Amino acid sequence: VLANALKVSKDKIESKGIKSVRSRVTNIKNHLPNQEMTVADFVVALKKYMSEKYEMTDFVATEEDEKAILAIQEEKNNSWDWVYGKNPDFNIKRNRRLKTGKIEANIMVEQGAITSIKFFGDFFGVMDVEDIAKKLVGVKYQKEDIQKVLEQIDINSYFLGATLEEVIDILVD
């Protein structure tokens, strides 16, 4: 991971007389005067050095700062759009073996919403599972929204012997 983070052109490395980027990377511990320094000791020493060299001071958040941070977290970071809506499109295959058979769902999600879903398995039902798939297209890929849709139908007609909770758990965490 570190070598990938330090990608440098081969000619630049060779012009410096270095075999590879990896050969330039060492452990901090090897450069410390006290080889027995703990991570906590290192943090204290680094902080002391930086504050002396760059006249740094500790930042202590006020109660107002904390409230502002929590407001931003609630407004932005806890929103579905922030957590899921900006994710890249993805396919997910989920399955579970129930006492009445195996149910597998292949789900395509784009911009956080289900765009297609196909059910497979050796389960029984009197209704065509394609009906459920159609109802789930356009639904946000989150448990609450999927549950709202599935609560409106008789799950047992599609997946004989399965409960609503089991089917939801197959589709989403």
Written account of the structure:
With 173 residues, this protein is of the alpha+beta class. The chain contains nine helices and three strands, in the order H-H-H-H-H-E-E-E-H-H-H-H. It has helices at 2-5, 10-15, 39-54, 63-77, 80-85, 130-136, 143-150, 155-158, 164-171; strands at residues 90-98, 101-110, 113-121. Strands 1-2-3 form a three-stranded antiparallel beta sheet, covered by helices on one side. The protein is elongated, with a radius of gyration of 27 Å.
Walk me through the topology.
Layout: H1 2-5, H2 10-15, H3 39-54, H4 63-77, H5 80-85, E1 90-98, E2 101-110, E3 113-121, H6 130-136, H7 143-150, H8 155-158, H9 164-171
Antiparallel strand pairs: 1-2, 2-3
Helix pairs in contact: 7-9
Features:
9 helices, three-stranded antiparallel β-sheet, 173 residues
Measured by DSSP, the beta-strand proportion falls in 15-25%
What is the H/E order?
HHHHHEEEHHHH
Helix content: 40-55%
Overall geometry comes to elongated
Main sheet attributes: strand count, strand direction, barrel closure: 3 strands, antiparallel
* Termini separation: 30 Å
Q: What structural class is derived from the secondary structure elements?
A: alpha+beta
Helix tally? 9
Strand order of the largest sheet: 1-2-3
Alpha carbon gyration radius:
27 Å
The unreliable regions are none
The count of DSSP E runs of length 2 or more, i.e. the number of strands, is 3
Average pLDDT reading:
85
